[in-house]
Structures are given as C-alpha cells and as structure tokens.
Design goal:
Rossmann fold, 5-stranded parallel sheet, 5-stranded mixed sheet, 53% helix, 19% strand
Length: 375
C-alpha cells in the first residue's frame, strides 16, 4: 500500500525539521507553504493524508480544510499548531479532523496518528477489494444462470416450431404428390399454400419473440406489468403444453399496471419460476397438471403469484430453495442458480420481495413489487 502525504506549513524551519520523519512514513511527500498552495496541490495530487498548520498567510489551515472537505468529506487530516485556543479545537471537531497536535511537534505522537490512519486506509482498501470480488462472483453466477436459461430457451423454440414445421412439411408434400397425380384442385392448392404461409408467419413471430427477449437491453423504463408477464408465458408456453401442463392466466382480469422497472429482469425471474414448476410437474403422472398466474394491486404493492399443483416443496428443503447451487435435480440437469438469481434480482435490483410457501395444491411463489416503482 503506497501512501502520499501533503504537509502544509508556512515556517521553513519547522517544515524542514518535520520533512524527514514524514518522508519515513510515506512513499511520497508533497510540501506546501500555505493553505492556498496546499489546496492547489491537493487538487493536483489527491493525497491520502494531510498534515497542516492552522495559522498561515494567504489561506489558513481551517479554510483550506473546509474547501478540501467539500471535495472529499472523508479526507484524513491532522492539524499541528502552536495555538491552543478552544475555538481551534471546536472548529477541528466540527470538521471531523483525525488529529490535533500542539507544537513543538511530538514526532512519536505524529507517527502513531499517521500509522493509525494508514491502518484505516488499508482496511478500507481490503473491504473495497472484497466487495469487488463479491460483485464479480455475483456477475459470474448471473452469467451461469443466463447460460443455463439459454438452453431452456432453445428447447422452447424447438417445442414452438415442432407442430408448424410438421404442418408445412405435410402441406408441401401433399401439394407435390397430388400435382404429380393430377388430383389437386386450385381451391385445395390455395388452401394448403395459405396453411404454409400462416405457419411460416407463426415461426417468424416466434423467432421475433425470442430474439427480442435475448437482445433486450438492460435499461429502466415504464412498461405494462401484464405485458411483461405475458411475454414470459409466450416463451415457455409451448414447452409447458408439450408436457401436458395447462396455463391458467388470470393477470388480464384487472386494469393495466404501469411499472418503472429494469426490463428483461422480471421476465427472466418469471421464466425461472415457470421452468422450475414445469420440471416438477413433468416428473408426475397426473392427468390434470397446471400452473396458475394471478396479479393484484394491494395498497402499496403489485403482487404476482405463481402456483402449481405439483404437491409442494418438502418441509426440510423449502428454507434452502433460494440458496446458491441448491438443486433437487441431478447435476447434469440443473445448476441450482435459477431461484437464487431470481431472489437477488427481485430484492436487490427491483427492490421487491420474492417468497415461497406451500398450498394444498403445490408451491406458491409470490413476487411483491413496491408501489414506489409503479406509476
């Protein structure tokens, strides 16, 4: 850790005598003859610690410190002075300086104060580095979650495309064979061509939905909450139907709710919850499998609830469901990051709350978004 000290003193003899012990305590020492020069050098070099006299020509230490504290309220400053008037002490306390040493300077005391400040700086740097590492870990986890979700999205595209591709193939083959045999009328040919065109448009629309979601920029803007929920449903709908899971969508029963939100992130959370319910239900042999989505506006919140009839989460696991890397699936089938990331997004990015409980039917996930985010 390299430390820079700015020493401000108008008396040359004191400045020269104090220079050597200060040089021993830092990697770089900057000298100034008064507060005005000290302020200019501070702006130029941004030192870690300032040691300054109080009574000086041009600009005194008090005024210099006030100007510096406006730039950086947390700047470390030690006063040295030959004056012990109570007014100086009071002003020093008000400005929250880090030390006050009377002249002649006790260099051992000065060294102790500087070493204490250096320890504080070192702790702050370590904390900052730890915060940076934690943030990087979260970004890595988010990237892992996105990669896992990308596999689900590709699977959903395949489910969406399977039936229309089959229709197109059947219609095209039918036209070709009947043409060769002379067994097709103009009306039948036009009908089959219209079917091909209709299904081709469906494929194009499907690609647009998925492409827009994948390429959606992370920006904050006002959107209709129901639109975001319906987008998530449209992405997973074919996959759910392929697993014989019915979607009970009740969100359009209330007036539109406008919300100022980070677009894309809520959709990501909803897809994670839908996929989690799908994985549970697809393992069950029951005939009537469903996922129900409700939306209500209650006091200062918008509340989205997603319930399934998969039997619920075992009592010994429900408290761990949002833990990172926790999964009940085989390692090859899941990362255990989806619900952890979902809770992080809702509570830290969207300032809401994500919780889960069991009902008589299965699990109920509840997303609460604050009214302050809703317009």
């Amino acid at each position: 850790m390299k430390i820079t000290i700015l020493y401000v003193e108008d008396e040359e003899e004191i400045r020269n005598n104090t220079k050597r012990p200060l040089e021993y305590l830092c990697d770089k020492l900057i000298l100034a003859q008064d507060g005005k020069e000290g302020l200019e050098l501070y702006k130029q070099y941004d030192p870690d610690i300032i040691v300054s006299d109080i009574k000086m020509p041009n600009m005194n230490g008090i005024d210099m410190t006030k100007a510096i504290k406006e730039i950086n309220p947390n700047q470390y400053i030690i006063f040295t002075t030959a004056h012990s008037e109570s007014s100086f002490f009071i002003e020093a306390i008000d400005m929250q300086v880090d030390g006050y040493i009377l002249k002649p300077i006790d260099y051992e005391l000065l060294e102790n104060k500087i070493e204490n400040i250096k320890e504080q700086i070192d702790i702050k740097l370590k904390n900052k580095q730890q915060e940076k590492e934690i943030q990087q870990q979260k970004l890595n986890i988010l990237e892992q979650s996105k990669n896992a979700q990308m596999g689900d999205i590709i699977g959903n595209i395949a489910h969406q495309w399977r039936q229309p591709l089959s229709v197109i193939s059947t219609a095209a083959t039918g036209i070709q064979i009947k043409k060769q045999l002379g067994m097709i009328s103009d009306d039948e040919e036009n009908s089959l061509l219209e079917s091909i065109d209709k299904n081709a448009q469906f494929l194009s629309k499907t690609i647009d939905i998925f492409r827009n979601y994948i390429k959606e920029k992370r920006e904050t803007k006002t959107v209709i909450l129901q639109t975001r929920v319906n987008l998530a449903i449209s992405i997973v709908e074919a996959s759910l139907k392929n697993n014989n899971i019915k979607i009970i969508n009740n969100i359009n029963k209330i007036d539109d709710i406008q919300i100022f939100i980070v677009v894309g992130e809520l959709t990501q959370v909803l897809i994670n919850i839908f996929n989690n319910a799908k994985d549970i239900l697809s393992e069950q042999n029951k005939k009537d499998k469903w996922i129900k989505i409700d939306l209500e506006r209650r006091e200062n919140k918008a509340i989205i609830t997603i319930e399934d009839n998969g039997g619920g989460i075992p009592d010994n696991l429900i408290s761990k469901i949002f833990d990172p890397y926790f999964t009940t699936k085989h390692q090859s089938q899941g990362t255990g990051l989806g619900l952890y990331i979902s809770k992080d997004i809702i509570e830290k990015h969207l300032h809401g709350k994500l919780s889960v409980k069991n009902s008589q039917n299965g699990a109920i996930f509840k997303i609460e978004l604050p009214l302050s985010s809703i317009k």
